[in-house]
Design a protein that fits this description.
There is one protein chain. The chain has 161 residues and is an all-alpha fold. It has two domains: 80 residues, no CATH class; 63 residues. The chain contains six helices and no strands. Helix 2 packs across helix 3 and helix 3 crosses helix 4.
């Protein structure tokens, strides 16, 4: 910021920033005066009509937004209260799939922990000599997935209608 002020001082533009602030302040005061008084709007001429039109557009937009928000809230409430049995079945099926997938992952992790514990027990018993090959978790996961297929997304739970 000081470099910018130094540049402005060297060039002789130190008056520019206060001038911009003064113009913006005058515009804001004029806009407020125009919106609060019909006489000021008539006095300001074309600019007064422009400010009034902008104010009316903003008011109309705010009303439209409020109306749309109330419609959306009504539709959300209606949708929340009218869930069909098919929607609930779909959600139950999705939850059943997620449960199968979590059980599959837990079974795989348990199998790896058993294998890894065996490896570390063997290492502790044999000491530093001839270590057996150690399987990393990603490699074990690939082998496990080949031997135990991952659960598929399908409808498993059908309810009597």
């Amino acid at each position: 910021m000081t470099e910018l002020a130094d540049l402005a001082a060297r060039v002789g533009w130190t008056w520019l920033l206060p001038a911009i602030v003064a113009v913006l302040l005058a515009k804001t005061i004029l806009d407020l005066a125009i919106t609060s008084s019909e006489k000021m709007r008539a006095w300001a001429g074309w600019y007064g009509h422009r400010v009034a039109a902008r104010q009316e557009r903003r008011r109309t937009q705010a009303d439209t937004i409020a109306e749309l928000q109330s419609k959306v809230e009504g539709l959300e409430h209606e949708l929340a209260t009218t869930a069909t049995a098919e929607d609930l079945r779909t959600e139950v099926d999705q939850l059943a799939y997620q449960l199968r997938l979590l059980r599959w992952r837990a079974e795989m992790t348990d199998a790896y922990l058993v294998e890894d514990a065996d490896f570390h027990r063997t290492v502790a018993l044999t000491g530093v000599g001839g270590l057996p090959a150690h399987t990393s978790f990603p490699a074990f996961e690939r082998e496990w997935a080949q031997a135990h297929p991952r659960p598929m997304r399908r409808r498993t739970d059908r309810f009597d209608e």
